[in-house]
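Module 6 notes. Inverse folding takes a fixed backbone as the condition and produces residue identities as the prediction. Think of it as a translation problem where the source language is geometry and the target language is the twenty amino acids. Below is one complete input and output pair. Work through it position by position during the lab.
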């Protein structure tokens, strides 16, 4: 029976591994300035999210949106806690998936 269990589990496991290898980082998780996964996303007046340190540097030399080029009405940054939580959950799931692949 142990061999039967192995056979019945191997097909779903192969399918799961195929899904994992095809997974990509969601574009929404990427900072448009650094093109890297954000760790501390903040939202600007343009409604877009950026990595906190990257947009701070940007705003030192420009008061325009990096995405639209339009002048920002203000440069207040609001932590995007929902996006941060989604990114953290996604990263955790990638760790689980990597363990399954082993």
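Target side of the pair, the amino acids:
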């Amino acid at each position: 029976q142990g061999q039967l269990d192995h056979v019945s589990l191997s097909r779903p496991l192969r399918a799961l591994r195929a899904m994992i290898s095809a997974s990509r980082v969601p574009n929404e998780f990427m900072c448009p300035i650094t093109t890297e996964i954000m760790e501390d996303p903040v939202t600007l007046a343009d409604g877009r999210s950026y990595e906190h340190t990257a947009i701070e540097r940007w705003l030192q030399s420009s008061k325009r949106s990096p995405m639209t080029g339009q002048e920002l009405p203000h440069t207040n940054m609001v932590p995007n806690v929902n996006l941060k939580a989604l990114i953290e959950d996604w990263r955790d799931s990638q760790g689980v998936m990597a363990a399954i692949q082993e």
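Reference fact for the lab report: The radius of gyration is 20 Å.
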